[in-house]
Amino acid sequence: MSKPLASMTGFGRASGQAGETQILCEVKSVNGRGFDMRARLSPGFEPLESQLRQIVNSKITRGSVSVYLNVQRDMANTEIVVNERALDAILSMIDTLSDRLDGKKPSIENILALKGVLDTRESALSPDAEAALNKAVTDCVSVALDGLVASREIEGQRIGALLAQRLDEIEALTEQAENHPGRSREAILARLREQLTLLAEAGTTLNEDRLHQEAMLLATKADIREEIDRLHAHVRAARALLAAGGPIGRKLDFLSQELNREANTLCSKSNDVGLTAIGLDLKAVIDQLREQVQNLE
After folding, report:
1. Running DSSP on this structure, what letter comes out for residue 117?
2. GO molecular function terms here (predicted)?
């Protein structure tokens, strides 16, 4: 059974809850040479990054993935504590300035309002509550990840249809090159005769045996049978990959390079304007194929 194709770009979002704690997760991905994940987690959840990486990598094998996690706990479970070091430093500064300046000392309310004097600290959870919260977080990430995977597969389906069209065009152009009359020995001989006519008008002669020898030599050099066979083989291989599905981006990229190499050789061997035009069209379509391949996982 074939697997769905997937683009490397997508987005997923999910929210969850554990008791009074609200959880929000967003996951997005863009093109990448391999798999890479960057996480921006709420304070205190950094130890979960390794586990989240494993969860993401189990469903995504290629692409640059960003995970955003925001966890908001109930304020009833939040403690307000005094930063003793900051408070001591401020009080010491007040005493120093009081000896040097005349003025009223600040009130307790004003001191406590200074940045850094008061800290908020979430009350410690029991081991069971902490395990439940961590599970709710990983479940939320998994749901967001499912949304990301689904969006990547939708885009992958669109890309797959475009790739199939490009392969049809490559095959049609390859058949045109294969059936082009300009690659026959007779056509080469006819072009040589035309050139001989021009040479004769210039006073140069060439016997018939030499003419056939030149025709055979040029026909051998211009033989594109091998390139045509390889183009057909690469198209069949690419279609087989599309049919199988899954993370085939790298393999298709290699095949697109091979297709381009054969098209280049065909153009270099061509001794006919029409055949060269077909080769150039081939190169253009292969470039379009490769541009789309770059987006596949």
Report:
1. T
2. hydrolase activity; RNA endonuclease activity
Count how many residues are written for the chain: 297
Residue 24 within any structural domain of the chain: yes
Structural domain containing residue 59 = 10-74+125-153
Q: Find the DSSP H helices in 60-126.
A: 84-100, 108-113
> What counts of helices (H) and strands (E) characterise the chain?
9, 6
Give the CATH number, domain containing residue 210.
1.20.140
Shared domain for 144 and 15, answered yes or no, is: yes
DSSP state of 40: E
What ranges make up the beta strands (E) of 61-159?
63-72, 78-82, 118-122
Is there a contact between 167 and 289 (Cβ–Cβ < 8 Å)?
yes
Say what the pTM is. 0.73
Beta-bridged to residue 22, according to DSSP, are 17, 72
pLDDT tens per residue, range 145-200: 999 999 999 999 999 999 999 999 999 999 999 888 766 666 666 666 666 566 55
Dihedral-angle region of residue 116 (phi above 0 means left; psi in -120 to 50 means alpha; beta otherwise): left
